[in-house]
Amino acid sequence: MRVVVLTGAGISAESGVPTFRDSDGLWEGHRVEDVATPEGYELSPSRVHAFYDARRAALAAVVPNPAHHALARLETALGDDLLVVTQNIDDLHERAGLTRVLHMHGELLSALCRGCGGRVRWPDPLSDLPPCPRCGVCELRPDVVWFGEVPYEMDRIHDALSTCDLFVSVGTSGAVYPAAGFVQAARAYGARTLELNLVPSEGTDWFHEARHGPASVLVPAWVDELGLPG
Ligand code: APR
């Protein structure tokens, strides 16, 4: 059985990472255009760096929750037949033990050099404009896909969606494309589709089945249900 799991901010909510669009969400206190667009960065790199530096630093205070751990168990059982595609820029999937994760919206712990185009692992602040370890130019920006930019790994994601038997969406509002359209693509290719989310997502009607509740409960229960060895 080949499985693709798409995760969004909801899977990390119970770890203490704020979602974007809930009432206490990250976008409540910020204008998206200021901190999540190339134009916002051009206007004020220091504001954007401060925003992502704070979020990167906050990662130290959070840990994976039972939903992340359940997906790691699933990977142990399925190996290459599981692909987790995440919109999240935190590293909680990896810290739970997952090794096959595609970060389609980039990663907080990575920096993108506007000089040489390289992506480098970056656990530190960027506000002090450090030089790129590859080319020496001081033009490192957060390696985050902003609105108006093309997500990473779309070819691999499309291949996986076109060959999977089951597509599961966890903790995403279904408000942002292209991820919001994955359910339709997987379905068109013949996969069964399942939504696991706190409340019905915007695309809930596209799924064969939808279960609503906290990810820390729904994801482990679903993985147990599969009855896989390992
Ligand atoms: N368990 C399951 N789902 C939850 C939980 C929880 N404990 N808490 C919240 N949710 C759900 C919310 O009900 C909501 O439907 O998670 C969803 C989070 O939605 P968003 O905040 O919109 O986050 P996401 O879907 O990941 O956003 C997509 O938008 O702003 C951009 O690039 C950013 O990757 C992000 C993208």
- Quote the beta fraction: 15-25%
What is CATH's topology name of the largest domain?
Answer: Rossmann fold
From the alpha carbons, calculate the radius of gyration and give it in angstroms: 18 Å
Contiguous uncertain segments of 5+ residues? none
Number of distinct beta strands: 9
Account of the 3D structure:
It is a single chain. The protein is α/β, with parallel strands linked by helices and 230 residues long. The longest helix is centred in the N-terminal third of the chain and has 14 residues, at 45-58. The strands form 2 sheets. The protein has a 6-stranded parallel sheet with strand order 3-2-1-7-8-9, sandwiched between helices. It contains 9 helices and 9 strands. It folds into 2 domains: 1-17 and 64-105 and 151-230, TPP-binding domain (Rossmann fold, 3-Layer(aba) Sandwich); 18-61 and 108-144, SIR2/SIRT2 'Small Domain', CATH 3.30.1600. Helix 5 (66-78) packs parallel to helix 9 and helix 7 packs across helix 8. The protein binds adenosine-5-diphosphoribose (APR). Adenosine-5-diphosphoribose (APR) binds next to helix 1.
Summarize the structure.
32% of the residues lie in helices and 19% in strands. The protein contains nine helices and nine strands.
SSE order and pairing:
Elements: E1 3-7, H1 10-13, H2 32-35, H3 38-43, H4 45-58, H5 66-78, E2 82-86, H6 92-95, E3 101-103, E4 106-113, E5 119-121, E6 140-144, H7 154-163, E7 166-170, H8 182-188, E8 192-197, E9 209-212, H9 215-226
Parallel strand pairs: 1-2, 1-7, 2-3, 7-8, 8-9
Antiparallel strand pairs: 4-5, 4-6
Helix pairs in contact: 5-9, 7-8
The chain binds adenosine-5-diphosphoribose (APR).
Adenosine-5-diphosphoribose (APR) is lined by residues 8-10, 13-14, 19-22, 25, 87, 105, 171-173, 175-176, 197-199, 201, 214-215.
